[in-house]
Amino acid sequence: MKNVGEAPQEELATGERSTRNRVARSILDHGPSTVAELAGRLGLTQAAVRRHLDALVADDVVAPREQRVYGARTRGRPAKVFALTDCGRDAFDQSYDKLAAEALHWISQAAGGGELGDAAVAAFARARLAATAEKYREQLAAAAPEQRAETLARALTADGYAATARSAPVGEQLCQHHCPVAHVAEQFPQLCEAETELFSRLLGTHVQRLATIAHGDGVCTTFIPRIETAETVSPQQEPKTTTASASTAGRNPA
């Protein structure tokens, strides 16, 4: 039999785990976050958030890092943010990474390896997005030009990418806070390149990938320049963007 007092302790432990999972999920959905941001989103005190973050850091689920700043840096020390580690991301739908990587290695080698192998993987990456491209195109076609980035973000979120769109000084930034294929994309940047090309086709304008989770950034960030009258183009047309080489795809050019 359980001793008196064990049940409340178990309930408390369950509640702690639940809240801790909410903290980790909030970082997944919104990207690297400060203590204040997490407290505001979750309705917790900053002291409570710090306690849960300490536990998540100890479990190698999240790690502190200096906040990345795009554009002019303000005075003072950069805020500390907490981002998911590879171990933390493993808990969110990445159980088939090894199989996917092995399949892409096989495709590359079957095509002859080297440049031929890279081209075969790139062709697979584009074909993989073909059905998604048509679905997204239909949604974007019904949106006003100024709403297309937000519409694309909602479509990506529905497919598990936890995406948001926000205004930037001369355009918008599309942020994907989760990537189901991040570990595989570390080895095969063609996946990121194909996705960037897809965004360019759908939005009808050049886009620039600033950062990717696959390359160690806390969030995949794509810059979309502001345009007055963008026409959505067919996913079969050539993209209006020039992608980076396989060795630099997704890196911040700054």
UniProtKB/TrEMBL annotation:
Q: Which SUPFAM superfamilies match?
A: Winged helix' DNA-binding domain
* Composition bias type Polar residues, residue spans: 231-254
Region Disordered, as annotated, extends over: 1-20, 230-254
Question: Its domain of life?
Answer: Bacteria
One Pfam family of this chain: HTH_24
The record's listing under InterPro entries reads:
ArsR-like_HTH, Carb_Metab_HTH_regulators, WH-like_DNA-bd_sf, WH_DNA-bd_sf
Its protein name is ArsR family transcriptional regulator
